[in-house]
């Protein structure tokens, strides 16, 4: 039967393997230093799935900012990018990858304030810093004056593989599933917002490898 000390050390070691797989060597080194200073704190990090003290503090600060925004304490990018509590309206965007031709489709633009946008950017930065690096996620934010100016990115695996392209709420999604990764073409998403303060459109582009 394991003692409490042995159980704590086993969980600390297991979490260290997790950080090495999903985080970085820098995160792992910080984690080891925290565990050397205090086994109890190291065990707390392991149980709560934080990499180290900085990760914990960043999470606390982000949740505090999120709690006074429209995200109401949520710091998960997937849900934050698709929250429409401040309203929405429908626009038309060109979904044709051949920009010499126009094929307009309707998509929703979700409303947000400048402060909401700053919180959303922090949520995305937090995700890129601490979540699974194997997905190769990257985000790009572009502002547009008019819907007709909005450009959508498309996943192109090869001339023989057509991407699956869908619109759901404010999200345009173009991916070739694992074929995209095989042919070195990332899946593409575009989340469309209407910035109430400056009265302009904001598109957050998300590219990632399909696992």
Task: Give your account of this protein's structure.
By secondary structure, the protein is an alpha+beta fold. It folds into two domains: 4-51, no CATH class; 74-208, no CATH class. The chain has seven helices and seven strands. The chain has helices spanning 4-22, 25-37, 39-48, 53-67, 77-80, 114-130, 178-182; strands spanning 88-94, 104-112, 138-144, 164-168, 171-175, 187-195, 200-208. Strands 1, 2, 3, 4, 5, 6 and 7 form a seven-stranded mixed sheet that branches. α1 packs antiparallel against α2 and α2 (25-37) packs across α3 (39-48). The chain is flat, with a radius of gyration of 21 Å. The mean pLDDT is 90.
The total count of strands amounts to 7
Ranges where pLDDT stays below 50 over 5 or more residues in a row are: none
Largest sheet: 7 strands, mixed
Helix residue percentage: 25-40%
* CA-based shape: flat
Euclidean distance between termini CA atoms: 39 Å
Helix/strand-derived class? alpha+beta
Overall pLDDT confidence? 90
Percent of sequence in beta strands: 15-25%
Order of helices and strands: HHHHHEEHEEEHEE
Rg value:
21 Å
Number of helical regions: 7
In total, the number of domains comes to: 2
């Amino acid at each position: 039967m394991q003692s409490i000390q042995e159980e704590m050390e086993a969980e600390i070691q297991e979490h260290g393997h997790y950080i090495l797989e999903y985080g970085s060597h820098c995160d792992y080194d910080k984690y080891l230093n925290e565990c050397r200073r205090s086994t109890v704190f190291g065990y707390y990090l392991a149980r709560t799935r934080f990499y180290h003290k900085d990760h914990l503090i960043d999470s606390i600060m982000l949740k505090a900012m999120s709690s006074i925004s429209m995200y109401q304490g949520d710091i998960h990018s997937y849900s934050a990018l698709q929250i429409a509590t401040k309203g929405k309206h429908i626009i038309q965007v060109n979904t044709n990858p051949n920009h010499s031709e126009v094929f307009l489709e309707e998509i929703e633009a979700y409303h947000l304030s400048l402060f909401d946008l700053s919180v959303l950017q922090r949520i995305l930065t937090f995700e890129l810093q601490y979540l699974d690096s194997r997905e190769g996620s990257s985000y790009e934010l572009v502002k547009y004056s008019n819907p007709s100016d909005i450009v959508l990115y498309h996943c192109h695996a090869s001339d023989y593989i057509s991407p699956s392209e869908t619109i759901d709420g404010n999200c345009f999604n173009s991916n070739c599933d694992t074929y995209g990764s095989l042919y070195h073409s990332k899946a593409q998403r575009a989340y469309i917002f209407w910035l109430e303060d400056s009265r302009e459109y904001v598109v957050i582009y998300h590219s990632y490898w399909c696992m």
